[in-house]
Predict the structure.
Amino acid sequence: MTVGTLVNEKNPYELAMQNFEMAADVLGLEADIRAMVRAPERVLAVTVPVRMDNGKVTCFEGYRVQHNTSRGPAKGGIRFHPGVTLEEVKALATWMTWKCAVMDIPFGGGKGGVTCNPKEMSITEIEHLTRRYTSAILPIIGPGQDIPAPDVYTNSQIMAWIMDTYSMTRGYLVPGVVTGKPICLGGSLGRNEATGRGVFYTIESACQHLKLPLKGAKVTVQGFGNAGSVSAHLLDGAQADVVAVSDSRGAIYNNQGLHIPKLMLHKEKTGSVVGFSGAEEISPEELLALECDILVPAALENIIHGENARSVRTKIVAEAANGPLTPEADAILEDKGTFVIPDILCNGGGVTVSYFEWVQNEQHLRWDLHEVNSRLERIMKNSFSEVLETKLQRKVSMRTAANVIGIARVVEANKSRGLYP
Ligand code: GLU
């Protein structure tokens, strides 16, 4: 492999575009509409100076990308992570556009990020970073314009600071500017668990389709943050055996199944899954190669690629993360007959309940948990059926089928609106 292809393989935006072109070919999209819907509408890069606890100022790089707003305001999370780059944020924003369209919720796609390591920052530093970043992107966000949410290493507290910063400049409380807020500030019941719960519903649908009993199914989970831990917990509750789990510090394994509630407590106390008493330590690469029924990548992009995809031995890959498989990995797994539930379908539960939160905020009312979860289940299962039907009809992969549906909806909206001026 040449260095050139290695670099390309690592650029998530180029990989997102590769998948876009594949689906656009299936749809037979003309060149002009293709060019209009592929490129981000707006890209904002900001410098975020923060006075650190030691008295010195550090300047962080931040971004907010609005990929497409044909179907509604831009929607998507904000990531605080050392690996954040503009190319990554552009890829994540693009995926949000197709994701909202596949879920058929009236939002476009956006994403934000700051290149930083919150694990090495104090709470005060993170608050100052959040508020300064918010004020830098403030001209382009708002409940009708662009609505951020949590993503990797951001949480409801950070959303509260974003909402407060925005509201202070307006002079009144604007809860609908951000989703994933604390419940006491207009957050929706069920939002925190929504991504993992949605992942679980799509796994149930996939198992039903493949006639694979979930009870007793062997599961491995790569990444034990919000999405990974909630998925693992729900799968454990459905009597699947979660045999291996990893996080940024390492991986653990127990052939009899890990005790997930105890593991969640251990992670809360120690900050990692490593050192859990009911398990042996393995390497993260070993985890990906374990023979299992369901593999849930729940961390970052490009985890399974051309070099390691052949060693993956699972019936189902459920993409709780965004972009965990490269197109090269896709082709290898497709050849093996692995059933992949693509990210824009699998993890769409998060943004779906974000939509519910925004609707509740805009209407000043509250839904109970049962209402949230039953609406979520209906949307996840409908979207799954639509993607599966398209896959079978067009004889394409689940990923291409999901992209075909998402892109077609965006194109339809775009064409109906016409070209301004
Ligand atoms: N960050 C999540 C995602 O990638 C949620 C986005 C949202 O709720 O707006 O889908």
Q: What stands out?
A: The CA atoms of residues 105 and 355 lie 7 Å apart. Residues 75-77, 149, 151, 179, 322, 347, 350-351, 354 surround glutamic acid (CB under 6 Å). DSSP finds 15 helices and 13 strands in the chain. The radius of gyration is 20 Å.
